[in-house]
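Note to self: the last two entries modelled the partners one at a time, which told us nothing about the interface. This time every component goes in together.
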Amino acid sequence: MRACGDDTRSAKSEFARRSDHTCLGNGRDRHHEYRTSHKCGGSTGVGYIARRGVGRVNGVRGERGTTGVAGGRRSDDADRDSGRYSPRPRIFRHHGDRHRARRRPRPRCVVAIARSAQMNTLPRTDTASDQLHPGAWWTWSLALGGAATRTTNPLILVLLVAVAGFVVHARRSPESSRTFWFFVRLGVVIVAARIVFDVMFGGQHTGFVVLNLPSVPLPNWAAGLHLGGAITTQELLTATYGGLQLATLVVCVGSANALANPRRLLRTLPGSLYEVGVAITVALSFAPQLAQAAVRVRRARRLRGLRSTGLRSWWSVAVPVLEDALDRSIELAAAMDARGFGRTGQISRRQRRLVAAGVLAGLLAIVVSVYEILDVGSPVLAGVPLLVAGTALALIAVLLGGRHRSRTTYRPASWRITEWGVLATGLAAIAGVLIGGRVEPGALHTTIYPLAIPQLPWPTLVGIALALLPGIAMSTARGDAPQFRAVRGELPAVARR
Amino acid sequence: MIRFESVTITYADAVRPALRDVELFLPEGELVLVIGRTGAGKSTLLKAINGLVPHFSGGTLAGRVTVDDRDTRTHPPREFCDLVGYVGQDPLAGFVTDVVDEELAYAMESLRISPAVMRRRVEDTIDLLGLESVRRRSLTTLSAGEQQRVAIGSVLTAGARVLVLDEPTSALDPPAADDVLAALTRLVHDLGITVVIAEHRLERVIHYADRIVQVDDDGTVRDSTPREAMQRSPVAPAVVELGRLVHWQPLPLSVRDARRAADSLRTRLASLPALAVQPDPIGAPVVSVRRLHASYDDTIALRGIDLVVRPGEIVALMGRNGAGKSTLLSHLVGLMSPASGDVVVNGRDPAKQSAAELMRDVGLVPQEPADLFFAESVDAECSADSGSRARALLDRLAPGIDGTMHPRDLSEGQRLALALALVVAAEPPVLLLDEPTRGLDYPGKARLVTVLRDLAAAGTAMILATHDVELAAEVSHRTVVLADGEVVADGPTGSVVTASPTFAPQVAKILAPLPLLTVAQVRATLTAGTS
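The predicted structure of the combined assembly is written out below.
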């Protein structure tokens, strides 16, 4: 079925031969790389993308699981000494580019599998957000969360959540939306729990009564608590505002998770903290494996006719899971050893301890100072000196420890002007909230007694609008890719053996 | 390239050495196959090439192992990472990162290779192994064949000249196994890499091998050409056994060679009377599945499955990975509830029963038999349910297991035997087995076949989900082929497996169009013809 005749590598041709695929059309040579008038036929989403000339295109999984793909890299990538793609989005890429070795441009074939019945398209997870340093996204999200901790104004909080949601949506991949919605649900649960607790145990019975619950008298030792009693709107609103604040913080952390995988963040750790990063990465992979092992063991217990619920069975479920985890960890250690882990760059024990102590002390100082900054009670600038000192200490410790270069990084993420821009928009949100509190005193904490409509000061609106920029700018650059909306495949949960 | 000089390896606390006086020289650019029974010491031999034995696993190494003049006594495994690449039995357990291209680059990071060179090597390896379509995917979402290729690629990028693989195709279905083996032969022939494989299922790989290293039970090692080794080896694939039965010279190793030599055999067998066909099992069906629809994680796993199994019948369930075999078995034991349709096992709906009642109706031996174990010793496992019956069955299946051993320390075949004994001890009328021959050597398979036949004769209905076409040909009455959640073929084994090239056993391919599936059938036809 294969119509294209161009394949220099036997590897590709073998796999291409073994799968049923249709050639979508003649590729173009390097001189026409950026033209969008590609004569790609194809009625599938893949062909459509090729016609639009947008972004990188993922292969479509065919029956045998082997596919061809429309994609590749620029010919001068290899010539440039860069370990990563340039920040400009690719308009069209060619598969397995070998141009650098040839003088004549050769037509490339765009191969894709079009099986509409079994189309199991997996959009690539490397959206444009993958090109940004993960630290930028994390600081941006945490800045939004920081802005949320300074206010209980529901309007501002809802706007912050909306901004986070919008940017996550603009940079989405299937995995990211799943994590983000998990955190949103967690936020809803937090608000609901707060309301229930306040209603049950709160004591404010003044104001407009919504519902009259019977009041349960409590013994003297629980004199501070009130059980039941009338539910008032004020009580409900206080609870909602409080819960909403925490929920917004949780959603901001969720957006950080969704925009930049924590594992990518761990890869950017400096050299002296490499082993710590590896330990955390392995732990992050082990946790879902433990959960899967527990599910398998419970099923197996059911097969053996044993109950798998109840406290007594907990031990008999835990033991096989732990044994399995132990076996896996030994196999992983053997594999890492065989692949050169711990090969070079052994710094002395004393130096390692000094680095660890310095980093810990610095981080502790940073945490305390950030708490002081974000705490509503204390003035904003009280914690800044400590923040500076803590950051300096941590940085010095890390740099001293990492002087001896032990490893190189594949695709090192670098911090460029775009990252500074993203960070600046996050800080703009905090600044907007703080300045808004100065401009309109009382806007940050909406009064409950008497009930008042929440106000939105204009600096806050401007600051939060600036925080939208990362979502807008990047999605425009990506060209509003329709394939992610049209073909939204689901990732299979686990690899099936 | 690889040289073993008087190597004796003894593990700590072991009574006798795992390998004894090994003298071996493996030149560059060969595909070496290491064969032997389970527990004979194949893994030890492979790990000794890399230095994992003794540096990682402990034990004593006497003698010298050198790879390209690098001695394993003085270099730990991490010093070998740019020369020898080791891929273990479970590639997923050896992955460090979570994305394919980062995994490929991991070994190079320790070697302090510059990022530009790393990018080039990753791209080359992706082209070489056909991983372009999965390069950004998370590793847990890949199929088993893709994971195996990623594991191979991750050790290749470091520049390894020797690849050591421990049972690379045991968990793969035939198409994925072919892909992996094709990649390995390409590496050997195009790049001159030395590949050392340990395998049980020889039928897939024997005709690619340039050299065979046979590890005997007492720890001695012999190396020879494939033909010589197969003349006298106790473990042999079906094509070699057929060759030995009818004394073909030279001994054919692949289906093509055997077919060329089989003209006279075919004419002779065609003239002999056919074997008596076994009568179809009769009786009311014990398993009845009607229009079963099931979905799993937002994908439709099964569409309209119909299945009927009668007492004493053995049904082989075959199909690609992900076709729905395990899902169907889960429905039959009530681990999952169908979206629509009904499942009736032994007159009752398995999803609605309690665990204790279910155990008396249907038993499932899962893909990972170790999941069933939770006691500290084999004796404790057996006595947990029904004591003597389980122990007796275990002794029949795998004789010589010490009762005080920890269940997880058993070999693959022994684990399967223990799991089977535990499940069968409850004497359920329906028995389900999920991939029973994974990691099982030929003698173990033969013992399993005997036990299964005895159980079927006693009236147990059995469903085997398997990739192993030889097992299906040997033991099953009927074969059901699943693809993409639907039943694609359902009929007597003889007609179903011979109709498809992927699922035909070797003897059927050699003797087509005769309806013979196994060497035992050929032997029976010949002896019946001469008597």
